[in-house]
## 1
Amino acid sequence: MTTPQEYVSFQHVQKTYDGENLVVKDFNLDIKPGEFVTMLGPSGSGKTTCLMMLAGFETATSGEIFIDGTPVNNLAPHKRDIGMVFQNYALFPHMTIAENLAFPLKVRKLSAHKVNEKVESALNMVELEHVANRYPKQLSGGQQQRVALARALVFEPKLVLMDEPLGALDKQLREQMQLEIKHLHEKLGITILYVTHDQDEALTMSDRIAVFNNGAVQQLASPTDLYESPSNAFVAQFIGENNQLMGEVIEIEAKKRCTVKVGKQQILARPVSVERAGEQTLLSIRPEKIMVVQEDDWYENQVTGLLKELIYHGDHHRLVVQIDGVGELVVKVTNGSHSSRDFEVGGSLTVGWRSEDCHALDCPNHAEQQGEAA
Amino acid sequence: MSRELTELDSVVTLQKELSKSKGSLKSQLQRAERQKQIRSLLLILPLVCFICVTFAFPIIEMLYRSVDNQSVPKGFPNTTQVMKQWDYEGLPSMAIQQVFMAELRERYADKTLPKLANRINIEVSGMRSLLMKTGRKLNKTNALPVNHQELIKLDKRWAKPRYWAAIKTLSAPYTLSYYLAALDMRYDEHGNITQQPETRQVYVDLFTKTFGMSLAITLICLVMAYPVAYLLANLPDKKANLLLIVVLLPFWTSLLVRTTSWIVLLQNQGVINDLLIWSGVTTERLAMVHNTFGTIVAMVHILLPFMILPLYSVMKGISPTYFRAARSLGATPSIAFIKVYMPLTMPGVGAGALLTFILSIGFYITPALVGGRSGQMISNMIAYHMQTSLNWGMAAALGGLLLAVVLALFYLFNRIVGINNIKVGG
Amino acid sequence: MALPSYCNTRERIGYYGYLGFCTLVFLFLIAPILIIVPLSFNATPYFTFTEGMLSLDPEAYSIRWYSDMFSSNQWVNALKNSTLIALSATIVATVLGTLAAMGLAANNVPFRNTIMAFLISPMIVPVIISAAAMYFFYTRLDLSQTFIGIVLAHAALGTPFVVITVTATLSGFDHSLVRAAYSLGANPIYTFRHVTFPLIRPGMISGGLFAFGTSFDEVVVALFITGVEQRTVPRQMWSGIREQISPTILAVASMLILMSVLLLLTLEMLRRRNARIRGIRE
């Protein structure tokens, strides 16, 4: 059922607790060896359940899960040889750090010499040699996190699962750890399945991201594709910021361009989820793709409105522009290209964008589809 | 399903169909859940069986004893049968009386009469001698009395209905007479429930005294515990822990040791009397032990930690910001305390008071050692019936009543506080 | 709790009155216990402070009651019995209680509250009732006046403590630790031995100590169902108090106070150690 290309394979996996409501609906995912895949979604979307099914702590009520070609539905968790990092680290409080790290090695009955060797190299890997004899309670949150990571890697598993491991850290530490995990991934070449609700984290670290909502994958793609070409309204809203305009499709031109009537304006957009004229659609435009129109500029879409607010964000400005009959647009302008002196709150402002940066998506009211994307 | 089969497409389709039929999946899941439940129950089973055998069955047996009346029906089976025909009017018919006499003679002859006579004597005193005497006389002759006069010749008392009534009342296998006696009531010669004669009315008074004393003890404990708990809850941790030892040490000291120390302190030649005389407060030695006073003092000492600890626990959880908010709104400290702080401590007060009261009404040791004659409580009477008067039915009935009261109070405690919140030792 | 400077005189009086009252209560709590100890060194066979004792005359003090206690057959036997009975009862109570607590910790137990109430009932029911009931029942089963009888009775009285403490320990138990151990390759038995058991051990020990203390101090049930051969220390003390023959009971009482202090210190140490280890989540 699996070709050598896939190291982990979920096939038509479903999960229900009471026999009626599906917590995970027809989940399919193939992970290549050495890939870093993130499952991203809001709480309760089913992503952690899928992780737990792979780990063996939950059983799929239908469907199969394969690791390296072997079906694992009936394999007990302690036989699966998968490394796991838990949300609260789950470091054994009654053992020292060294003993925590030695635990999986002792279970596998390695010689004392080998155990010490591997524990030492694991500690080196996360730069925590000096805390070997301390207890988890005596370490900071960041240090505990690194120990949890080291413990999941010390017995050299080929697959590592991480369940929102950075949730409890502050912003700076989190960003630092994201890079460290990414570097470890590249160095060791292990396959990682990562769960988070933080889209910045997902975008930074992953090779591919599976966006979850209501138990179904909305889109499975690389970070770039996900951000630049969201396949439905949920993904567009969930990843990055976007401006949303509701309108009606007037005409579609061969999958490349469509004309959408928004209020009194006609907007040119790229058709993503729309099929025919007359459909209601949600237009999604990223704030940084809207440009302030200068002297000689020309854009496919150009509108003029009132500058309502100007917000300073250090390295960029946010402009809130009120367009008659269309709505409010948020425009992101870096301070390299403009400075605040260029703008006058209350004055008129013309902005424009390309049609390919404007995606015509489904209307959220219609979409409970279990869409599988590329 | 073996792994090879799962590779087949048809089986995969079948799996999909199975997953669509909610019924079978739901029952599968329920079965798995039930298996987990059974595993948990198996862990609990050994202890449940153990408690049943060593504790629950004895209690049930005791309750059975409180209504058990088998001795008389077993000893006088025929009498029991025929007595059903008599309705307490006048005297039983001669036939009935003869049946009784026959069995009385048998019982005397096989020497089981004394025990039965004791039992019957509990209902109507004097019947023991009546039965023994009549039995002895009957045993000497072969013939049974055939009419009223001959019966009266054996003993005049057989002319009185109440002795016959006692026998009838006792010939039911189950009786409420112990419980009635525990509430100072009895069956009269017509089988109705009436009050016991004044001289025998002891139990209601005893219950009243027990509850009264316990109430007094609870209130005294509350008054003493409240300020102390407040102090402990508001001191910085290090000092509070130190003072907490002063509360916990008595809590952990043997009950007997504490009671002994009170005897030593309060007795006539004891330390406190010495102190009073020496300091000139009194000229005579006060009788402070072997009476109600001694019981109350000793029991307050023993139960005080049970009042302090729940109060302390609740008070520790009250944020000081409430009090401050009240003061900032213009309330004086007294008003803020009474209207804001005290209501917040009510759960602790309820828990502590209920706990203290429940423990107090069941106490045995302290009243037994320091109570003397006037400081006795219900539990002492139960022990008396068990060891001295050997009236086990009575002991069981009193125990049953006490148990009912304690269980009712504990049910109340559970509603207010909850079993899961009991913390032992803090 | 220092008095702020804006308090008036009435408030000051109230405050010092409150402190004074608390002091009196603390004295009330601790004095009776402390009094016993010096009295047990009384050279005369009386239960009061003699003139000599008050003037701290060393002649007025002696350890004769302690030597009496240790040389008396009755007391030594009673001590042996008490220790043996308490140990046996504690072992039974700890094993059964821990198993039950583990079963009760799972959320899926039906009638959990009722079962819990039933298992705790020996602690709630007034001991005179338990004693009477056990007396009737054990006599019928010929268990009265036997070693096994009193051990069973004390075990029954001790299990509620173990159930309560171990349940409390388990409620704070982090289940992701078990999952972590599984994910690291440990099977359920290995996990229990190396992860679960060490973490619930403090609760088991606390409960066991409570059960031990309860059994050692228990007198009412002992009064009714022990014979002369199984006499425990409290049972012996009971006779001693009733008849008040000699201050040897004061010596015994002092020893028991010492035991309580040790028990208290052990429990406190355990509590601190437990809090330190669990600190990861506090």
## 2
Amino acid sequence: MGIRILKGGMLTTVQDLGRTGYQSQGFSVAGVMDVRSFKIANLLLDNPENEAVLEFTLIGPTIQFTSATIIAITGGDFQPTINGEPAPMYTALYMNKGDILKFGSARTGSRGYVAFSSYLDIPVVLGSRCTNMKSGIGGFKGRKLKEDDYFNFRMKRRYLPFFLSRKLEPDDFGQEETVLRVIMGPQDDLFSKQGIETFLNSEYVVTSDFDRMGCRLEGPFIAPKETSDIISDGIAFGSIQVPSHGKPIILLSDRQTTGGYAKIATVATVDIPKLVQRKTDHKIRFQPITVQEAQRLLLDEVKELEEMRKMIHQPCKEVLDCRLVAKRLTKLFED
Amino acid sequence: MQNIRILTAGDSSILVEFGKEISPEINRKITATVQLMREQHIEGVVDVIPAFCSLLINYDPRVVSYDEIRERMQNLVKVDASVSEERRRIFEIPVCYGGEYGPDIANIAEHAGLSEEEVIKIHSSRDYLIYMLGFLPGFCYLGGLDERIHTPRLANPRIKINAGSVGIGGSQTGIYPLDSPGGWQLMGMTPVKTYDPGREVPILVEAGDYIRFKPIDEDEFKRIKELVDRGEYQCVIHEGEV
């Protein structure tokens, strides 16, 4: 009892926070691109923080439920419908056996997430359920999902307390211009003063070379002092690599563990979701902050998510309005 | 050791740079530091990526702050740790050279102006330090290939190279851990799986270990391959001096 994929969409994979601890052996971390949307989806269902979800890109999947469960949809707006009726996002949704959840193309953002209260029955490989497509491991058979793929749930979990309270204000991914806060380094010293100024004061454009591995930007040439070739070293999530062509490439979830180009800066963790939700031709600017500031922002987000968790565990305001409750209950029973 | 720099790599990683050259001494210091970090169980560290002359440390800033991890690493690299001789592991990799197993061995021999037998002898007569793993799961960057058999990559890379292929690309030699496109000159094949996702330990080696290639004939290749397929093959590991 679980879900059947009726249409795979453009790129739908099973993901969690990634396969950490094995990078020294050459395994990419993989994992979700937009960690914030991922965490909020699981939070809405009281799932463990690292529970596996489906991540989809630009065109979403169509999914049939072969047993009842509760889901939450977050990330970009893929115009979801349940049995043809528009479905709200950032809220807990009860799904019946036979229901069809359909995503369209991304109206805003570029990546969407759906979490399940009954947990996807996907084997854990090296500590993670995430799909590493390049190595062909993890997730569902190490690959993206396609028509007729079927998998079970690990358990029956069809009740959540405070069900009516489980809704949050959706994040807005409608912007076409974004400022990404960055921490300079580790190899900013290999770029000329002018190169650094160009990087921090120019507008860069997202190209179509944008996948789970990285995002290539087009824009003014960032000059190295001599060369931007380095002896290969480890790469962090959000590293901004500048090869000798002088255009930045931001390395993302499916990045290789090591690389031989200088990294001028690293995107602050809290701003990576803003980047991964962009589309081709969207504009990017960079703003430097200190590492301490970036970590403060990250801890602020932890607090913000904690507030969200508290909010969805309070009795619903609408409970005071009996007519609304009756209406919602009727709808629940009708389904 | 001088010139160790600790560099910022975002809000969840720091990069410890041990030098700016590829040398066994620097690499050994990195291996020793990784061992030391394991022994000390530094709270908040989620992953380490040792490379030729640097070590990237990924940490969870919710557990340990930048200032804390930086100070911790500054103290740690001061410890005069070196990998003791007896801890060195040398993995013996049996290789069937030439023929259909190594279709480019004639290229390598011709480029070197040597016979195929001499190429095999040179390739299998020294131990190679694993500087780092990367590129693919289990792919080892090996140091120390004899200059006489350095060979440029193929002008036309192959679309598929089978897992287990042993080859030379420029000044490097190595083993393809899984099927992959590539441009290296193929000189042989090992029946041993350096990467097996189904095995309890998918990757046997780690940075700081050594690899020793041992020439075998086709019969031996088939015998070992059968053992490998049944999951009964035990990789030969020599310990001690290189």
